[in-house]
Amino acid sequence: MLPLASDYPFLDILGSMLVFFGFVIWLTLLFRIFGDLFSRHDISGWTKAGWTILVIVLPFIGILLYLGTQGEGMNQRALERAQAARAQFDDYVRDAAGSGGATAEIARAKDLLDRGAISQAEFDEIKRKALAS
Description:
5 helices; 133 residues; mainly alpha; elongated; single chain
């Protein structure tokens, strides 16, 4: 026989949802703390081991203690990592763009064509090679 909706009332559903979302939030905090903890270079391995044991043995107290004592530093380290990643990405884009690539080469050739330094056939050849690379 199929269970009826009255066998699982609304408040039980609401309670189950709150427990589920609380667990998801706790897991998110756990991963965030472990990510911050093991990416730090300013503390020793023993300190990392101590925080890890505390968070595993007393999970809620350990997470709350870490957030309370290291929360400001977590934010600062995350900001520094984001700025470093942005700078690395910007450097990569500048290197990939180089001196302008095919567009800049075609523009220089067009300028030479306009000044009469090269013929239309030479311009077409430069354009073809630039677009092929």
